[in-house]
Amino acid sequence: MEFALIISLAIVLFGIFYVVMLYNGLVSLKHSVSKHLANIDVLLKQRHDELPKLIETCKQYMKHEQETLSKVIAARQQVSTAQANHDMIALGQAETNLRASTGQLFALAENYPDLKADGSFAALQNRISALESSIADRREVYNEAVNNNNVRIEQFPDVIIARWFRFTAFDLLKFSKAETQDIDVKTLFN
């Protein structure tokens, strides 16, 4: 009788331990996604802070290129709004618009030798280009974390714990078709 009680207790303890392990794993994945999104937010904020400086520098040289500068400002606002609303789909689209308008701005700078030679413009351009690369890297890491979370909450037996404790799937940061197509550099100079 004692042996059966010990075996039953061991099975119950193992079951509890197993459920706790599954739960903790799911919590870890959920927070990993949040951490990676926060890392993207940090870089977006840094770029958000750098763009006005770049635009101000350009304004001094590009008085008649106001339309391009306005596109950068509008795209920056779209990113800010999507980021504040935690709307991953809108954020992906806004990021595409911001990258395109920033690319146009850098292309237009080719027509202004004094601007290209300006030290603050060059430093800001390099800083924003570095931030763009970092954002792209972090988006990839974020999407990997989202994928790991989404797969795990659908796998058995994790799905039982995930549904019981209401773990949800996250949206991937998706690229628009324009972002994945080849770039026609000639159009950037028009």
Structure report:
By secondary structure, this protein is mostly helical. The chain has a domain at 37-148 and 170-188: LemA-like domain (de novo design (two linked rop proteins)). The protein has helices spanning 2-61, 66-84, 88-109, 113-117, 119-152, 158-164, 177-180, 185-188.
Strand and helix layout:
Layout lengths: L1 H60 L4 H19 L3 H22 L3 H5 L1 H34 L5 H7 L12 H4 L4 H4 L2
Helix pairs in contact: 1-2, 1-5, 2-3
Brief write-up:
This protein has 190 residues and is mainly alpha-helical.
Number of strands: 0
Question: What assembly state would you assign to the polypeptide chains in this entry?
Answer: single chain
Q: What are the segments in which pLDDT stays under 50 over at least 5 consecutive residues?
A: 179-190
State the end-to-end distance: 87 Å
CATH class of the domain at 37-148 and 170-188: Mainly Alpha
Tell me the fraction of residues in β-strands, as a range.
Answer: under 5%
Largest sheet: none
Tally the helices: what do you get?
A: 8
CATH topology group of the domain at 37-148 and 170-188: de novo design (two linked rop proteins)
Salient structural properties:
190 residues, mainly alpha, de novo design (two linked rop proteins), 8 helices
